[in-house]
Write a structure and sequence with these properties.
alpha+beta
Length: about 160
């Protein structure tokens, strides 16, 4: 058996070095995912493992709002509602339509560090949920205000 074959695919409770990692693993075991908050972003951990759905990340929202949005997205995924890349997603919030874009693996290290820890590397997919301004312009539109565009780095 090679070293690669004997490697565990994801982290387990026994792999945890601190209370945060233990809580993360416990959430994934109980709920099929967890949400991590970092300054300026929230993202899921465990969706790829338990549901073969891309992990989700959202930027520029208050932590509570970001967490609620991700929980609603996971609820939809569990209910059989698929999110489609680049297509409008209007069922997650009544306030605005979102779009999902694939995250380039080069951004995993900077923005999805606990996914890299959990999956022992970059062996997962991730999508960024992007929200528009009050005029329904997304960050890739030149009319989107620069101050709002800076809140949502484009990870494609």
């Amino acid at each position: 058996m090679t070293k690669f074959q004997s490697m565990k695919s994801v982290r387990e409770f026994s792999d945890c070095d601190d209370l945060f990692e233990r809580r993360l693993i416990q959430d994934i075991q109980q709920n099929g995912f967890s949400v991590v908050h970092q300054p300026g972003s929230c993202y899921t951990v465990g969706l790829w493992h338990g549901h073969r759905h891309a992990e989700l990340i959202v930027f520029g929202l208050p932590a509570e709002r970001g967490q609620l949005l991700l929980h609603q997205a996971v609820k939809d995924i569990h209910g059989g509602q698929s999110l489609k890349l680049g297509h409008p997603i209007d069922r997650l919030t009544e306030e605005y339509t979102l779009r999902a874009f694939a995250v380039n693996v080069q951004h995993h290290r900077e923005y999805l560090s606990y996914n890299r820890w959990f999956y022992r590397g970059d062996g997962f997919q991730a999508w960024q949920l992007v929200w528009p301004d009050a005029d329904h312009q997304f960050p890739d539109d030149p009319r989107h205000p620069r101050r709002l565009r800076e809140l949502q780095p484009q990870l494609q």
